[in-house]
Design a protein that fits this description.
Blueprint: H1 11-19, H2 25-45, H3 57-64, H4 71-92, H5 99-107, H6 112-121, H7 134-160, E1 171-173, E2 176-182, E3 191-196, E4 202-207, H8 208-239, H9 243-268
Antiparallel strand pairs: 1-2, 2-4, 3-4
């Protein structure tokens, strides 16, 4: 099982590899047919798309109890949707039927009201896009203008206090724009001290005009978080009717990864699915007795 585990990519798939145990007699034949089919499919058409999706059982349980979605949850759900879509596209390329594998893919439900909406709301870094709501777009435009205003202002202050600076530039300390002021002249630059150099000769001061702009920026950032909370609250309400389907999708993706891992393991080790027989027996192909037929 430790050798099978690395062939899986999903969180649930890896767990299923570790938990692999004996099948019941009534399901053994079906599972062997399924595995053999998966091996044949991969040998002929290559691996089907597998992504490192997370196991979301606890998330769905928490959502049923009233927890709100977080941005991290949206990214997990988006990846589920991406994998479901990719599996559907892969299935369309198959020119031969693989009923056991395809029934699992067919059981997946791409819920556009959830997966499609989340895909449109997140960027490649997993953050909410500006147009997630008109209010968020407005706030972020104001933040961009304020950042540009702060850069222009700090550059102007560099010129204004040039004679009191250790160098003719500004820097960033603790996330704040600061001026590198000669410590003996720090009283000439009104503002907040953010840091002092190791030598003690330079004091990094956030000028008072920048402090005032920073306070306005903090208010905008707080408003941005409030709007993100509103958006996530709306999404949480949207997915409530689909929780059971979303949970089943996530579980199925894990099983498809588990089946894929077993098939790839078998191919790498030149293995084959066992063939069940109704009568006991033993066939030794190419066997010989070392003493009689050395």
């Amino acid at each position: 099982l430790d050798r099978l585990h690395p062939f899986a990519m999903t969180e649930l798939g890896k767990k299923l590899c570790v938990r692999t145990t004996f099948f019941r007699p009534d399901e053994l034949a079906e599972k062997l047919h399924e595995l053999d089919e998966a091996i044949q499919l991969i040998r002929r058409f290559g691996s089907w798309p597998i992504y490192p999706v997370a196991e979301l059982r606890e998330l769905f349980h928490a959502l049923q109890k009233g927890r709100m979605l977080h941005l991290e949850d949206l990214n997990h759900l988006r990846l589920d949707g991406v994998m479901i879509e990719a599996l559907g596209n892969f299935q369309k390329t198959l020119i031969v039927a693989f009923p056991h594998v395809e029934q699992w893919i067919d059981s997946l439900d791409y819920i556009d009201d959830v997966y499609g909406k989340i895909r449109n709301l997140l960027n490649d870094r997993g953050q909410l896009v500006d147009h997630a709501s008109p209010t968020l777009l407005s706030i972020r435009k104001q933040l961009k203008r304020m950042d540009a205003q702060m850069v222009a202002l700090i550059q102007k202050l560099v010129s204004s206090y040039a004679s009191s600076l250790t160098e003719s530039t500004y820097s960033v300390r603790n996330g704040q724009y600061v001026l590198p002021v000669i410590t003996s002249q720090k009283q000439k630059v009104p503002g907040v001290i953010e840091d002092v150099s190791d030598t003690g000769l330079t004091t990094f001061v956030q000028p008072l005009p920048i402090v005032q702009l920073q306070q306005e920026k903090q208010a905008l950032l707080a408003a941005e978080q409030d709007e993100i909370f509103i958006i996530l609250t709306g999404l949480t309400e949207t997915i409530q009717p689909y929780l059971d389907s979303l949970a089943l999708n996530n579980k199925t993706l894990g099983y498809l990864d588990y089946l894929h891992a077993k098939a790839r393991f078998g191919i790498v080790h030149e293995g084959h699915a066992s063939i069940l027989v109704t009568e006991p027996g033993l066939k030794l192909k190419g066997a010989r007795h070392l003493l009689i037929d050395p």
